[in-house]
Amino acid sequence: MATPTRVRAPSHSPATRPTVGSRRHGIGFWVVALAFLTSMAFSTVPTPLYPLYEERDGFSTFMVTVVFAVYAVGVMVSLMLAGHVSDWVGRKKILLPALGLEFVAALLFLSSPALPVLLVARFVSGLGIGMLSATATAHLAELHGAHRPAASSKRFETVSTAANLGGLGLGPLVSGFLAQYVTAPLRLPYLVFAVLIAAVAVALSRTPETVRELPVRPRYRPQRVSADHGDRAGYVAAAAGAFASFAVFGLFSSIAAGFVAHTLHRPSHLLAGAISFLVFGGAALAQILTDRLAPRAKSTLGLLAEGAGFLTLVVGMHTADLATFLVGGAVAGVGAGLLFKAAVGAVVAMAAPARRGEALAGLFLVAYLGLSGPSFALGVATLRLTATSAMTWFAVGLFALLATVAVLNRGSHGGR
């Protein structure tokens, strides 16, 4: 769930420099974008299906959050261990194994709907996404630069945002439609995406490489994480904003479908998928349309929209009004998208180029903690409270976090 950043393509010697305006690089750009979109969509395929798993095996809302947390742990482990390795060995040598992991996860989903298999499949899928997200973003930037060397980065930024957040919204929409109108709802969505993943992997294998493998690789180490990047208060503010934005994304990727089915009494799988699409689509569209806004304006607008949207969502749950719930979710998604884009932009601006990967690794680690931690806490709360009461307390915690981000923003160098 990453916002694309301006990534410079690695320098090439005259003997290895890509052909300027190469048609292969232009085609490769769209192949990588499709692979990115397909993988991110696959990662959210289970979202509208969780109520079916609950009915089949008697899952509680808490267990759904455990399944989702396992996915987030897989992403974080992979980000720390392999998210930076493509700088040394090449983009395709990381992207193709990442797609392989997604394919294995699809086969696991197909093999059995039992809880142990579901947990393993979500962890494997998380490992693949952690390898793929940053690598695909960098590969897109480099292919764009090779194909259109004189153009701005606008096309890259728009396409990578659409592939990332758009994919996260598209997956639940497709699986919700298939679950609603086609047989075998716990098998067919995974079969469709297994075929798609295999197809894009074949196409990706033929795209140009944009990084020349180093003759002597650096000694391997996990990705470093540090908050010491010239503006510690600003970095902490950005990390808190990333945590808050991913808390909303995590809610709609894990247990929102169950709330709609059980609390609002709308069990439609298509509706559950459409809600996730609305939230992630709103986030992607907001990021694209506000590209010219200053980072401070994006952050402020994001804080206000996320807070107002979540308040509206909670009102919709208390009144059992679906329209109010949907409006709240859409507005909260817009706010989360803006807040996270502002956080990434702030970190990119403050970090020295040589330590930018380290700075972003720390930001993404905190963001994925926000993806899983609050949703898990909400699941624990539902063991003792009604879903509506638990969501109300979740909102209180989120408002406190958003207020903290606003205070931290004022104390950072960028807020003076």
Q: What is this entry, summarized?
A:
The chain has 416 residues and is mainly alpha-helical.
What coarse outline follows from CA principal-axis ratios? globular
Report low-confidence residues grouped into runs of 5 or more: 2-19
Number of helices: 15
- Tell me what the CATH architecture of the largest domain is: Up-down Bundle
- Tell me the distance between the termini: 30 Å
Radius of gyration from the alpha-carbon trace, in angstroms: 20 Å
Q: Which fold name is given in CATH as the topology of the largest domain?
A: Growth Hormone, Chain: A
SSE series:
HHHHHHHHHHHHHHH
For the biggest sheet, the summary is:
none
Percent strand equals under 5%
Pfam family, one: MFS_1
Region (Disordered): 1-21
Transmembrane segments: 27-50, 62-82, 94-111, 117-141, 162-182, 188-205, 233-257, 269-289, 301-320, 326-352, 359-378, 390-408
Domain Major facilitator superfamily (MFS) profile: 27-416
